[in-house]
Amino acid sequence: MNSVWKLGWAVMLAVTAVCAAAAQAQVALPKILSDHMVVQRDLPVHVWGTASADEAVTVSFRGERQTVKAGWIGRWSVYLKPGAAGGPFEMTVSGSGAGEKAIALHDILVGDVWVASGQSNMEFEMFKAATASADLPKADNPRIRLLIVNKKAADYPLDDVETTGWAASTPETAKNFSAVAWYFAREIEAREHVPVGVIDSTWGGTPGEAWVRMTALGEDAALNPLFATRGKMMDGQADALRSVDYEQKQIAEAKAAGKTPPHFAWHPPLPAWGPGNLYNGMIAPLVPLPIRGAIWYQGESNSALERWPLYNRIMRALIEDWRRQWAVGDFPFLYVQISNFKSTPAEDWANLRQQQVETLGLKNTAMAVTIDIGNPNDVHPTDKVDVGHRLALAAQALSYGEAVEYSGPVLRQAVPENGAMRVWFNHAKGLNAKGSAVTSVEVAGRDGKFVPARAVIEGETIVASSPDVPEPVAVRYGWANSPECNLFNGEGLPASPFTSVKSY
Asked: Which of 52-66, 279-293, 428-442 has the lowest mean pLDDT?
């Protein structure tokens, strides 16, 4: 009995010590609030963190000073007045606890903050880009600030990210940063003459649903199949892990024997494929920080035959919920349409691209078409400067109100006309085909069978016909995993592949 009493007393003392330590916690900031950061201009400046329960925390920035009391679990949050672009500024955060040292953040700029997210083509680092050898040596720009979020999947929304913090753009800091995001930032800073901060929160080989809050996915009953697909992945995980172990042993043995290692199929990282898991670990901790907008490059991992039909709904859930969570209005969401890649019959890149076209129905969205700058033999094309440029054009138009053409031709309407199909487009001024005729156009009759068609340009329309289909009712363009497309507008922006019907 005495030993039990002693054990209970020891446990009570340990718990008391832990509680006392928590009660005396030092004031702390999340890692995304650091030296060299950018805060969003013209919006209230949000500063938040943790401290001892009920402790008074004082924040000073740009001549303004505010004090707030931490809650019973130690969380505190304060908003400071908005201001114009400028800097550098200093920020101090201090607690009222005895002996506490103030936190000082240095070299803060006020400008525009953009979040860059998605899978491998957004993650694709600057040093791998085709233009890196020319551009990396000139990457010094103290008005561009970069932050890389470390990969982290989680079952619930985290309150902080793993990162080394913000850094000014230099050849060293830019080389491992997203090439698309860096080129985007370079162009925005040069044209808008404001500091630009970009947060690189990416993970290659991941599906769109992993980046959406679980609650938002669950609110759309049509997305229920995502959870069944996830269940099938989990059911086979024990065998998958054994397969990985076996394959790694085979590779190690081959290397030890001086032989060429065998090649095995890629295995998706299980935690990173869980619906909501990447939102929880890599997006949720960012939403307290006000932003200007988001750029997105993803979709390849949703191109499988059983996955692509849900992609538009996934993206609508993602965009609408990110906007709700950030609570800074319907910020611009600018995304890249997946490029041309041969892939396999198990994937349907044409239908996935059409799903991306349909997401344009959401307001304040734009799509950068890249069908002309891909690599049929490599899912990771190295031309990232043009991708960044096309996203920057969309930002100039949607976010900065400039009168620039930011999109290639996009299908508006297609109707039968005298034994042919006439197609109208938006963004079609100066419509032209690079070559003698428009390529990769097909028409279909009521039987739904598409055949190659001859297409001619008439003003800002095309007229497509085939002697094999005397009464066409449908038309499509670039309808393959890796089509040859040559339709552009006068600004040199490529037309998006399209179909006039959802499916047959």
From this structure: 428-442
